[in-house]
Automatic annotation (TrEMBL), chain A:
Domain of life: Bacteria
Cross-referenced PROSITE patterns: PROKAR_LIPOPROTEIN
Transmembrane segments annotated in the record for this chain: none
Domain ABC-type glycine betaine transport system substrate-binding: 36-303
SUPFAM superfamilies (alphabetical): Periplasmic binding protein-like II
Organism encoding this protein: Actinoplanes palleronii
Signal peptide start and end residues: 1-22
Pfam families: OpuAC
Key words, A-Z: Signal
Lineage of producing organism: Bacteria, Bacillati, Actinomycetota, Actinomycetes, Micromonosporales
Annotated protein name in UniProt: Glycine/betaine-binding protein
TrEMBL record, chain B:
Pfam families xref list: BPD_transp_1
Subcellular location, record wording: Cell membrane; Membrane
Family per record: Belongs to the binding-protein-dependent transport system permease family.
UniProt xrefs under InterPro entries: MetI-like, MetI-like_sf
PROSITE patterns membership: ABC_TM1 (PS50928)
Protein species of origin: Actinoplanes palleronii
Keywords: Cell membrane, Membrane, Transmembrane, Transmembrane helix, Transport
Protein name: Glycine/betaine ABC transporter permease
Region Disordered, annotated ranges: 1-28
Residues that span the membrane, as ranges: 30-50, 83-99, 106-125, 131-147, 154-180, 200-224, 269-290, 310-328, 340-358, 410-440, 452-473, 497-523, 568-596, 608-625
UniProtKB/TrEMBL annotation, chain C:
SMART domains: AAA
Listed InterPro entries: AAA+_ATPase, ABC_osmolyte_uptake_ATP-bind, ABC_transporter-like_ATP-bd, ABC_transporter-like_CS, Gly-betaine_transp_ATP-bd, P-loop_NTPase
The name this protein goes by in its record: Glycine/betaine ABC transporter ATP-binding protein
GO molecular-function terms, A-Z: ATP binding
Lineage, top ranks: Bacteria, Bacillati, Actinomycetota, Actinomycetes, Micromonosporales
Organism whose genome encodes this protein: Actinoplanes palleronii
Source domain of life: Bacteria
Amino acid sequence: MRKLLPAVLASVLLAGCGGATSDAGGSTPSAGSKGTVKLAINPWVGYEANAAVVGYLLEHELGYTVEKKNLKEEISWQGFETGEVDAVLENWGHDDLKKTYIEEKKTAVDAGPTGNTGTIGWYVPQWLADEHPDITDGANLNKYADLFKTSESGGKGQLLDGDPSYVTNDEALVSNLKLNYKVVYSGSEAALIKAAQQATAQKKPLLFYFYEPQWLFAKEKYARVKLPAYTAGCDADPKKVACDYPDYKLDKVVSKKFADSGGAAYQLIKNFTWTNDDQNLVSDYLTNQGMDADKAAEKWVKEHESTWKPWIPAGS
Amino acid sequence: MTAVLAKPAPPRERNGRNPRGPWSRRKEPLTRRTVMGLSVVATVVAYLIFRTAAAADAPDAAAFRLFGDVRDWVDDNRDTHPLFLYGINYLRLGVRVLVEGIQAGLTGLGLPGLVAVAGAVAFVLGGWRPALLAVAGFLGFGFLGLWPESVDTLALTLTAVLLAVLIGVPIGVLAARVGWFGAALRPVLDVMQILPTFAYLAPMTLLFLIGSPAAVVATLIYAVPVTIRITELGIAGVAPSAVEAATAQGSTARQLLTKVRLPMARPTLVLAVNQTIMMALSMVVVTALIDAPGLGVNILRALERVNVGAAFDAGLAIVLMAIVLDRVTTAAARRQRRDWRLAVPVLAAAALIAALPIPGDLPTVSFAKPVNDLTGWLELHWYDGTEWLKNTVSAVLLNPLENLLVTTPWWLFVLAVLVFGLLLAGWRAAVVAALAAAGLSGLGLYQHAMQTLATVLVATALTMLIGIAAGVLCARNDRLAAVARPVLDAAQTMPSFVYLLPAVALFGASRFTAIVAAVIFAVPPVVRLVERGIRDVPPTVVEAALSAGSTPGQLLWKVQLPMARGGLLLAANQGIVMVLAMVVVGGLVGAGALGYDVVAGFSQREDFGRGLSAGFAIVLLGVLLDRLTQGFNRTKGPSR
Amino acid sequence: MTPTIAVRNLWKVFGPRPDRVVGSPLADLPRAELRARTGCLAAVRDVSFEVARNEVFVVMGLSGSGKSTLVRCLTRLIEPTSGEIEIDGEAVRAMSAKRLRDLRRHRVAMVFQHFGLLPHRSVLDNAAYGLEIQGVSRADRYRKAAEVLELVGLTGHEQQLPEELSGGMQQRVGLARALATDPEVLLFDEPFSALDPLIRRDMQAEVRRLHAEVGKTMVFITHDLAEALTLGDRIAVLRDGELVQVGTPEELVGAPADGYVEDFVRDVPRADVLTLRWIMRPAVDGEEYEDTPLPQDTVIRDAVPRVLRAARPILVTDGDQRVGVVDAERLLPALLGHRRQVPA
């Protein structure tokens, strides 16, 4: 931090000549010299798995310092502009943000896919689907609304969502498909998982928003509820969506500055790609084996050298 | 003894005492009671006729679009418009330099150095007791393994406090000295003080983007009203005789200020700093939501993972910091003269420690595991009980009330606020409250506002119930009061965020969780005010009631509680404002409605307009509740 | 006839472990020494007295003499340390909480120095408070309260709040509240000392009138000797928690028990208090007297015109019996000479 001060002061002086832009004073990623890489951490464990491994490799293989910032998705993108964030390691679609920050503002750059395929959908515990086979058809949901009533759903069925910042069309879906349901936000992935586990363990009916890659699917069975199939462009207007979620090719986004001067760190992030199983494994370490990010990444890195070796840029 | 059988002389002592003092609430004339009754009936009838189906708020109100447009404009012009180029961006830069400077300074001292300096400063300001506390507290950050985070939080807090004092003290002095300025400022401060922390965040990110500068500015705005208020109080409270004497000796206005008014107001000014620090600390924790570093991040992350144990460590660190800062400044306020001879060597020693390369590694202690074990145990064994409690409160209180409110057409709500405001709180409060109520639907968030209101009302009712019961117990039992006092002290220095954790641990994500957190947050001041109110009942009155043969229950219901009415109403007012703040934060843990809109607003681009609207709606709701309870207090309050 | 109130060997000691004081050598220590040795304050020390039915019994003493504590001990507003209190022969100290409440509700009422009115209730509701907590119906208690308010001259003020009344009127409310439950005993704790002198005199007249109208046994605490002399059938002088003297006003003035009481009464215009009994002389054989004798309990001042106008001494009688003689010579010292000059 002490190193930062002169840089900041210098930029104040520089800016003094001609007005300050929004990124004035933001620290520049120290290119060339092994500097600091600022990774945004979005609030779900799969993302943390990506960040754990990438961060571990940046620190231990390339010798960078990694600064992790717990930020919601949108705010991470704003961080590209201010210099608070260098890279987002798992991005779900967000075409609107791409348009704004990559095309219009040109503060961000696409850094390629993570190799993960993301699906979002509505799920019920398997035992419930076994009991009522037709429940997995979204058209029948209204029939079962009473099953999903809770103290929070105001007489309707409850559809449990996650963090308010997640990619979701659920409010629009409920109203456009004329479902007698109310979207209730649990506030986080952890709360969502806890509710799902309880639903399985205690046989409590639950309809919830969930997604893959997700370690929980390796442990417990959940059935996806079919909504009207996705067709290209059916989700163009977020207010009028009446179709299921598309499959997402998850990708990485970095700030323009980092792409230009991030050197080996940028190369590593660009090269990073792995499978859903890889991610679920690390997520499981993080969530259920009580490991912190460093330990989980270390374990995975030890056991999967052939996967990550190719990511390391030549010559470093 | 000779009997004087004449009828008594007509009481001659109808002297010139104020015939209708502040207690003067004559038996309400029948007409007024009739009006009240009729209004209730009319409201019920109107509700039955006009109730709506509670259609959800439109996803796209005019206000949302407006704010969305504002945001787009700001985004497009952030780097071109002179307002930003030469104004706001500089402000942001300046604050950033300040924060990073202070942060670099604190970090540069290293753990041993900072502990030593903190101890030395505490010693100079407050004496050896606060110094010990400061050393222990700062070492505690190290032991908890939260050293860097604590320093970040401390740096942000100190920066915001520094700015708040630099800005607030002159304004406070001005407000005290210039009548019209003070008068004009008062309503502004009133509104600022009831704003929940959450309402500040979205506008801050709009102007200052995310990061420390936005956090500092938000904190500054949150804390500065207190600085101004207390400074004004201190300056206005300087004995006129002292000013008169100094004037008589020929002081200039400037000399009066620097040699008489400011020194005489010193204890109050230190109190102002103390309160500013407490406010700032609680806000700084919340600004983790807009990417401010520090302990708030740990708490937020723990909340996201429902990891109560991890949050417990961070919460403990925040409490330590709050207690240290509070005790040191309180001691400084009490202390009249300092021993500078001792101060110099102590400071020098601290500087020496800071300069020496002492390794700052401490063994770390974490309470995460035991706390998580306990939480796990509670979840397992109390699940039925907590679930039952949650469902019962939701079904019996929350849902019916919410249903009633959301099915009330907005105009009827506004009308009811106006009419009952007029009857209970006076016309001024009624008009302001009604305008605020109308504004809620103007913002396109009437439904969500009503949902939040329902949660707030239930939480306030529970808060008052628990607070009054505890306050009464404390007022009647000295030993209990002695035990409760330090607990309440500590509770009141704790930032609001911390209270979410136990609630989440026990009740998962729901509106009831927010209610529980709000109750825990708001009960301590209520207990205080109620206890004081009851203890302030003159002993003669209590004695008279006892000597008439009152049972303890009769004493309480017929004498103590009615006479503590002023205190109770004040408690209700404070309670409701605090509850609102907490319920909104509860949007993070499933409380939904306005709080959720705010959170969504700065985490989903397309919801920005809605989020900002929700921020304003919270403000309006706060104004509405505050005006009504306070108006009630003012029109009907006792003179004491 | 059993006395209405009987107090025997009453002690009240404040402080840590007060019971160890009574009955031990400590009890004989002077107040200050006791305090220094044990930290205890003996507010009431070994006090015994009786009050007859319909008597007005005044307890007088300087502030700190223990008189307010004493009166509060009677209904255990302050719990006595030891001793006995009987009201109508019933031991107060043995009463259960419920029985004690009944005593306070129905039989003994109290009037306080600072009124102790409930500021949030109307005058009517204040007067009706005692009845309300007994569970008397609204109509009945309002009727009764209105009656007593009329008795104390507050008709027309029923709906006002105490704050809107002057001090004297507030104390009338206090009086009405005490009377409303129709108790046998009224306790007054310096009820008029917070009032202006003129109003105080009104209120004293009021108490005398009430006593004449409704009877009642009264215990009246005051530090004002004039008030004590005006109201009291008998007066008890309290010093440092101990009774110094109990007697009628003229006994106190005529025969102070010690220097303390003498100091107290020395500025009293003796002619106003003493009766002829105190100044008459034995008849001398062969003297000639006025035709009409004077009863011996005539206050001296009332006898002045006759004695001075009379050419001859006047006989003093007790009923039919001649007990002595007064003349101007005996009268004048009582009128003039007993007022010692206080150096200005």
